[in-house]
Design a protein that fits this description.
It is a single chain. By secondary structure, this protein is α+β, with helices and mostly antiparallel strands. The protein has one domain: 4-Layer Sandwich (Metallo-beta-lactamase, Chain A). Helix content is 19%, strand content 30%. Strands 1, 2, 3, 4, 5, 6, 9 and 10 form an 8-stranded mixed sheet that branches. It has a 5-stranded mixed sheet with strand order 11-12-13-14-15, with no helix packed on it. β3 and β4 form a beta hairpin. It starts with a strand and ends with a strand. The site of zinc ion (ZN) has 6 residues, from loops.
Length: 293
């Protein structure tokens, strides 16, 4: 557990795996940048034998004085993904909910579920297979995502060329929430409570949004897929193959890093390997990442 002012922050892990190399995930990133910062790429961030980036899939759970807030709900159990590149994520059966309970929150306790965006690995536990159909996992929660994100994914068809790996996700992970009246599309600047703000950070997807925790300059920034892998702090201009609009994603990333650099703000990304979070410092040529001790 991480204590941050009045907040408690827990990381709820679903799974961790060496996924793909930098050349596959971020094809434009020059090999020299990786060489230059080899010291950052420990075995927790890059598997040496295969050159694959170690990706963690986890939620961040915040306990405020008033609420339990769950950020991003990973992949989920028993979701079926038929595409070859998603084989590692299909039909999972993990102890995610047990880990959530271990942090002190039963599914019924969650007050808010915030999805930074609606890719398959950020909204999976929104629903569970109960009595033969997908139903809300967190029955007492209000589920939030940006209005634009909701509009985007509700208007694309599963056979649209750019849906790709997200095929079927809306029907299984989002539609049941709409039917239960639990999902709300919100605008930029929405406050869950005093000091817990949502801020649009688009590019990865049209409505990708981050959560800022704390007053007067955030104490914590929960950044979703604004940054997938640590070398994007060192080269924010390089974008992953998963980004909807690469240039916009890069500009949003650079602006965000600038905003939090050299402050006490902790950055909580969705996919960094152990220790999973840290802070950003500016350097003569850009930024660097200081992992939490
Ligand atoms: Zn992701």
């Amino acid at each position: 557990m991480i204590k941050l002012g009045p907040y408690e922050i827990h990381r709820i892990e679903e799974l961790m795996l060496p996924y793909a190399g930098y050349a596959d995930l971020i094809p434009d990133m020059p090999g020299e940048l990786l060489e230059e910062h080899r010291d950052v790429l420990t075995s927790h961030q890059l598997q040496a034998e295969t050159g694959r980036i170690v990706l963690s899939f986890h939620s961040w759970l915040i306990r405020t004085r008033h609420h339990w807030i769950l950020i991003d709900t990973c992949i989920g159990n028993h979701k079926i993904y038929e595409r070859k590149e998603l084989a590692a994520f299909s039909q999972l059966d993990t102890a995610y909910l047990t880990r959530l309970r271990g942090a002190g929150a039963a599914p019924e306790d969650i007050d808010y579920v915030f999805c930074t965006h609606l890719h398959f690995d950020h909204c999976g536990w929104n629903t569970s297979m109960i009595d033969g159909r997908w139903q809300p996992t967190f029955p007492n929660a209000r589920y939030l995502c940006h209005r634009k994100e909701l509009e985007h994914w509700s208007s694309v068809q599963d056979d649209d060329y750019d849906v790709g790996p997200n095929s079927g996700v809306f029907d299984a992970n989002v539609q049941p929430l709409i039917e239960a009246g639990l999902l709300e599309g919100v605008d930029d600047g929405y406050e869950i409570e005093d000091g817990v703000r949502l801020r649009l950070a688009a590019g990865h997807t049209p409505g990708h949004t981050v959560l800022e925790l704390g007053k007067e300059g955030a104490q914590g920034l929960f950044s979703g897929d604004l940054i997938h892998a640590v070398m994007q702090v060192y080269g924010p201009q390089y974008t992953t193959v998963f980004c909807n609009k690469g240039e916009e994603a890069a500009e949003t990333r650079r602006q965000t890093l600038e905003r939090i650099a050299d402050r006490s703000t902790l950055l909580f990304p969705a996919h960094f390997g152990h220790p999973h979070y840290g802070r950003v410092e500016s350097t003569a040529s850009g930024f660097r990442f200081i992992f939490a001790p």
